[in-house]
Design goal:
single chain; alpha+beta; about 35% helix
C-alpha cells in the first residue's frame, strides 16, 4: 500500500480523521498528505524536537507553554509522551504519533470525537511499527 493510500483509507477513510499526513521521522520530507493539508518544514522540526525529548525537556516545555503548530494552526498541547503528541483547538485537534521511520499526523474536526481519532492514528502507527516502519 502506498503512503497516500494509508492517509486516504486508514486515516481519512475511517471517518474519524478530517485531514492527515505522513512525514519522515526526521521531519525533512512529507511522504503523503490530504490535499490542502500541509505540515510545514518548521512545524515538522518542532514536532521532531518534541518527540525526541521523550515527554521531557525544553521542546516539550515549550509545547505546553506555546502550543504546537500544524498546517499554520496553533493547538494547545495536552498530552506529550514518548511517541505521541495530542493537541486541541476548540472542538478540533491533532493526534501526532511517531513510528520507527515516520510521523503520522491526523486532524479531527468539530463533528469527530477525539477518542476515536486517537484510536485511529495510534492503531495505524501500531500496524506500521509491526510492519517495520
Amino acid at each position: 500500500m502506498s503512503w497516500q493510500a494509508y492517509v486516504d483509507s486508514s486515516l481519512v477513510g475511517s471517518g474519524h480523521i478530517e485531514k492527515g499526513a505522513i512525514i519522515s521521522a526526521a521531519g525533512d520530507s512529507t511522504w503523503a498528505a490530504t490535499s490542502g493539508f500541509t505540515v510545514k518544514p518548521d512545524e515538522a522540526k518542532e514536532i521532531v524536537a518534541i518527540l525526541e525529548g521523550g515527554g521531557k525537556g525544553p521542546a516539550v516545555d515549550k509545547a505546553f507553554s506555546e502550543g504546537i503548530h500544524v498546517d499554520g494552526e496553533r493547538y494547545v498541547a495536552f498530552n506529550v509522551e514518548d511517541r505521541h503528541i495530542y493537541g486541541r483547538k476548540g472542538r478540533t485537534g491533532v493526534i501526532i504519533v511517531k513510528t520507527k521511520q515516520a510521523i503520522l499526523v491526523g486532524k479531527y474536526g468539530e463533528g469527530q470525537q477525539a477518542g476515536n481519532a486517537t484510536t485511529t492514528v495510534e492503531a495505524l502507527a501500531d500496524y506500521l511499527i509491526k510492519s517495520g516502519y
